[in-house]
Structure formats: structure tokens, C-alpha cells
Amino acid sequence: MKYILVINAGSSSLKYQLIDMTDESVKAKGIVERIGAKGSVLKHTTTGKDKVTIEKEMNDHEAAMNEVIAAMTNPEYGAVKTMDEIDAIGHRVLHGGETFSAPSLVNDEVLDCVREYIELGPLHNPANIKGIETCMKAMPGKPNVAVFDTAFHQTMPDYAYLYALPYDAYEKHKIRKYGFHGTSHRYIAQRVPEVLGKAPKDLKIITCHLGNGSSIAAVDGGKCVDTSMGLTPLEGLAMGTRSGDIDPAAIPYLMKKYNMTAEETVTFLNKKCGMLGVSGVSSDFRDLHEARLAGNKKADTALKMFCYRVKKYIGSYAAAMGGVDVIAFAGGVGENDWDVREWCLEGLEFMGVKLDKEKNNGRGEEKIITTPDSKVTAMVVLTNEELMIARETAQICGK
């Protein structure tokens, strides 16, 4: 199996990468934005060739996929002569509920299950289904593999994933913690032992996927035992625009004071809170740092809040696992914001964390950022969800 096409379909976007599995290199990549709206655009890059921008109305995902195929096979800037060269397609799917604890070869039964979980993933699952169906139509006969964001977290014990609600809320309605960013957490959990030259079974790792959306997972012996996101990606850390953990009783109070419906309140908590809401400046951490340095107290408070909550989760997960060997930072913020990494680890010396500030400085580099005598290793991992999806697709198709 040589070429695998990785698809990440959003409600109005479609990201893709063509990966050459002989050396796991990216042959081509791109994104279609504003699907179904005015100003649709495709940005495509084949490795070694100039970037191409195609402005064309794309009313649905099928039209977008057809433009992707046209770009991929273009004689001038394409990556392959025909789509027959592609061996399989791997799809990111947000919610697989309890049904999927591993990637799955797509068939009618799998699609029906993904549809069942639309209620739990209303923004993402419908788009993920469209991406799969579009690829099946455009490339008939090619295997499609669904890789679920929730799958990695299915090893959590019941006392970790259950909420303290009447048990029939779980039995009848499957209300529980599922966790997300699973593909990234799985990649980090596999990469850390490779870098350290140790077996996964011998490590207790806290994986910190920090970006506009952020989550943390406790990984003991290669298996997830807890994670910060819950029934939806809203639970857990304060994020770019998400509130994270909040007193449930605050929600009806918010509804009353802001005169919002339940649906409007969920949108409010997902889109207008977090770093954006607290700072009043931006959800982008670069903007927050700039504002903080200019004397903006709210931006300073937002950054402190973020790092404080990360630190609390690190401490709680170390307790849950009975210790920790590695704290791994990844994601757009985790990989690039050395101030945030330092502040998240500040005060954890009692756990045996000794940060090397000089090593910590820098962005976009995989490295260990603690001193050689630090009992707990902190490190930066450059997560690669697309490669993880490609690897899992190749594994499933190989079976």
C-alpha cells in the first residue's frame, strides 16, 4: 500500500493530505473553504511545486471533492496521474460513541452507526459522513476507513467515564464522558516511547494537546485511563472560545441573565467564552500575549487561567495514575508557545519537574525541555493526526 488520502471534512471545509506510506512523507495537501457559500476556494500544494489557489463556487462536499480530485491529477501541479494510484482513504470522524474502540473499514453498517451518533456530534458527524460518501462516489471500489476521535479513550474505566447521574442516564441515553482529540493523543502516546527508547507499558504519560481546542489525557501503559473532554468537546480546559468546566447551575442563570434559549446558551459556551470571552481580545494566544505585554489585565488573566487549569489537570492525572513519567506538550499552542509551557509546569517541582528554560525556548521543535536530573520528563511532541490516520488506515486495510 503506497498512497493514502486522508480526509478531514468539516461543515463548510474539507482538509486533505496525500501521504506516501513508503516513507510517510506528504505528497500533497490542501483545504477547501467556504463550501456551500460565496467565495469558495481551494488551496492546494503538491510537494516540490508551487501552491495553487482555485476560486470556484462549490455548493456541496461532492463538488469540493471533485475539485480536489481535479487538482490532485492536474498535469501541471498535481500529485498523481489518476486517482487509481490512491490505495485507500482515511477519514477523521468525530464521534463513534461506545461502538468504535478502533478504526473501522466503512460499510453500510458503519455509516448507520455514525448517523446514530449525530445527536452527540451534531456539527461534525454529518460533515464526516458527507466526506465519506463523496469519496465512495468519486472513487468507487477504494477502501474507506473511519478513524474516530473518541476511540482512543474507550479504555477508560467506568468510574472515570461515568457522570454522577442516575445510572439509567447512561444505560438509556449513553450520557457519559467520551473524550476527543483521540487521534492526536494516540500519536503522542506512541511517539513518546519512541523518542525515549522505552516500552509504552513502562510509562505513565500525561498528553497535553493544547490549541484553540485543548484536552489532556492520562495514558498508563499505552492506554487512556482518563481525559478532560466529556460528552462533548465543551468539558475540560478553558479553550480558545470554549468555557470548559463550569458549574451546571450557572447555565440556567446565564440563560436568564442573557435572555438565551438552551441552544443559544450551548453556542455561547462553545463560541464566545474561553480565552476570547475572558480577555475580550481574541481566542488566538499570540494576540493574548501581545495584549498582555501592552498592559491588558484581562488578557493576562485569560492566559493565567488557561495555564492554571492545565496545571490542575496534570496534578490530578498524576494522582489518578499513581505517578507520572512524562508530560508531553503538543498542538498549536503546546508546540509553539514556550511561555505557556513554562507557566503550566511552574510550581510542579514537588512532583520532580525541573524545567530547563533555555531548552524550553523555541517553537515547532520536538525536544525534551527538562533537565537531565528531572524525575519527570517534560517534552514537546509535534503531533501528526493525518499521519496517525494514514497509519491506522493502512493497518485496517492490511487486515
Low-pLDDT ranges: none
Strand order of the largest sheet: 5-4-3-2-1-6-8-7
**Which range does the strand content fall in?**
15-25%
Please give the count of helices.
15
Class from secondary-structure proportions: alpha/beta
Helix content: 25-40%
Order of helices and strands: EEEEEHEEHHEHHHEEEHHHHHEHHHEEH
Overall pLDDT metric = 96
The number of distinct β-strands equals: 14
Shape: globular
Radius of gyration: 21 Å
Oligomeric description of these chains: single chain
The N- to C-terminal Cα distance equals: 12 Å
Largest sheet, strands/sense/barrel: 8 strands, mixed
Q: How would you describe what is shown here?
A:
The structure is a single chain. The chain is α/β, with parallel strands linked by helices. The chain has helices at 61-72, 108-116, 125-138, 158-161, 167-173, 182-196, 250-258, 262-271, 274-279, 285-293, 297-321, 331-336, 338-345, 357-360, 385-398, and strands at residues 3-9, 14-20, 25-33, 41-46, 52-55, 86-93, 104-105, 144-148, 204-209, 215-220, 223-227, 326-330, 367-368, 377-380. The strands form 2 sheets. An 8-stranded mixed β-sheet has the order 5-4-3-2-1-6-8-7, with helices on both faces. A 6-stranded mixed β-sheet has the order 11-10-9-12-14-13, with helices on both faces. A hairpin with a 7-residue loop joins strand 3 and strand 4. Helix 11 crosses helix 13 (338-345). The relative contact order is 0.11. One of its GO terms (molecular function) is acetate kinase activity. It is found in: Cytoplasm. It catalyses: acetate + ATP = acetyl phosphate + ADP. InterPro entries: Ac/propionate_kinase, Aliphatic_acid_kin_short-chain, Aliphatic_acid_kinase_CS, ATPase_NBD.
